UniProtKB/TrEMBL annotation:
Sequence similarity: Belongs to the protein kinase superfamily.
Name the record gives this protein: non-specific serine/threonine protein kinase
Enzyme class, broadest EC rank: transferase
Domain Protein kinase: 53-417
Key words, A-Z: ATP-binding, Kinase, Nucleotide-binding, Serine/threonine-protein kinase, Transferase
Coiled-coil intervals: none
Lineage: Eukaryota, Fungi, Dikarya, Basidiomycota, Agaricomycotina
GO MF entry, a single one: protein serine/threonine kinase activity
Residues holding ATP: 82
Length: 421
């Protein structure tokens, strides 16, 4: 990893007030690293890493990075390059973000393990300096649709249960690898972080670049170049024709280890998207790999019904987290562990958790266990036996006690997965 060259000043670029006021449709190109950003505005055709990579398309962006399609001149292939913001790169160097360390581990821990191909892998890494600061760059395989992207291409966003079980099996294999071989908790498992790895990447890339070339956002043409030095590029994920008759060729991969944690070295107490958050995280207790299994159970319901399983709101003097816990008990038909509840009361200086849970349950419109919400009419073209099997697996992932949730390796032994490719 390169250090900052001595000719680069510590005082970095600061945008004018008029440029900041324009409003940025994707990442804010005017915000600095000190403001939690520091994005570099790559240009189409620009080269990186001493000319090895040529930028051809913007694939996406997030809070800490942008992702670009590039041609690798050395290995003669297409790759994806995740360019971290100057802020995120600084956090990695300081040890407060573990993404690079964990990507290295996920790539090298046990490459022959059956689950290694279900987790994004690091092909190469490099850094470069810009006006915004130093940027860590992670080179990976090119991925296509995430789950929401796939759903947007379908007439009915509810996925067939057989398709969800296939996705679930792929994710479980990835989690088995992360949990048991890499000793990593993903902690941010959600539909947007599960992506398809196409088998014919080169064909898809060439078709997309020809038929749907990269485009720029339109800004007022009256702004002179010295006031608008950036040309924001539209994010355009790679898409391809979905042939449902060849679904067995689709491979799901767990992506984005930006919020992952090594076992026993948890960098944040608050993890997981709120709707997918496990009860032990919700009540600030010790957590581990079982939170990923909980998130997967929530996702199964969401993909089958196109609805979040939990939608808690503040209820009078009852906090949202308590309403969330009450909904968990109602939907799953289980009770929260007394010992865990007592730990929460001591830690949060609450002495009436059970009372609040009872009042939240009484005031909630939800009072029916999950099995009554998943039936033949609620999901996409499935019979009673398929629904029953699906609910059984999902309920096992949604055990309120994390010790009772199956580990990924054990969940894969379920007979329902035997004939799933």
């Amino acid at each position: 990893m390169s250090e900052r060259p001595p000719h680069l000043p510590d005082a970095l670029y600061k945008a004018s007030d008029s440029l900041k006021a324009l409003g940025w449709p994707e990442e804010d190109l005017t915000a600095t690293a000190d403001e939690g950003a520091g994005f570099y505005p790559l240009r189409l055709g620009e080269t990186l890493d001493d000319g090895r990579f040529v930028i051809t398309r913007k694939l996406g962006w997030g809070g800490y990075s942008t992702v670009w399609l590039a041609r690798d001149r050395k290995d003669n292939r297409h790759v994806a390059i995740k360019v971290l913001s100057a802020f995120a790169s600084r956090e990695i160097k300081a040890g407060r973000l573990a993404e690079l360390e964990l990507l290295r581990k996920a790539t090298s821990a046990s490459p022959n393990h059956r689950g290694s191909v279900r987790v994004i892998r690091l092909l190469h890494e490099f850094t470069f300096e810009s006006f915004a600061g130093q940027h860590v760059c992670l080179v990976t395989d090119v991925l296509s649709y995430d789950v929401p992207g796939l759903q947007s291409q379908l007439k009915d966003p509810r996925l067939p249960l057989a398709s969800i079980l296939r996705l679930t099996k792929h994710v479980l294999k990835g989690l088995e690898y992360l949990h048991d071989e890499c000793k990593v908790v993903h902690s941010d498992l959600k539909p947007g972080n599960i992506l398809l790895l196409p088998s014919d990447v080169n064909d898809i890339v060439m078709h997309e670049l020809a038929e749907n070339p990269a485009t720029f956002y339109e800004f007022p043409k009256t702004i002179p170049p010295d006031e608008l030095p950036f040309h924001p590029v539209f994010s355009a994920p790679l898409i391809f024709h979905l042939d449902t008759s060849k679904e067995s060729s689709l491979r799901w991969v767990i992506a984005d280890l930006g919020h992952a944690h090594p076992h026993g070295k948890y960098l944040s107490k608050t993890v997981q998207p709120y709707a997918l958050r496990a009860p032990e995280v919700n009540i600030s207790l010790e957590w581990g790999p079982a939170i990923d299994i909980w998130s997967l159970g929530c996702m199964m319901y969401e993909l089958a019904t196109d609805r979040w399983l939990f939608r808690p709101e503040v209820m009078g003097d009852i906090p949202r987290d308590i309403v969330h816990l009450a909904q968990m008990a109602q939907f799953t038909g289980q009770c929260h562990d007394d010992v865990a509840s007592e730990q929460y009361e001591i830690q949060e200086k609450q002495h009436d958790l059970k009372s609040m849970l009872k009042r939240a349950a009484e005031g909630s419109a939800v009072s029916t266990p999950i099995k009554f919400y998943l039936n033949e009419s609620a999901v996409f073209s499935n019979g009673a036996d398929e629904v029953s099997t699906f609910v059984r697996i999902m309920r096992s992932f949604l055990a309120l006690d994390p010790a009772k949730r199956p580990r990924a390796v054990k969940a894969l032994l379920d007979p329902a997965f035997m004939n799933v490719l």
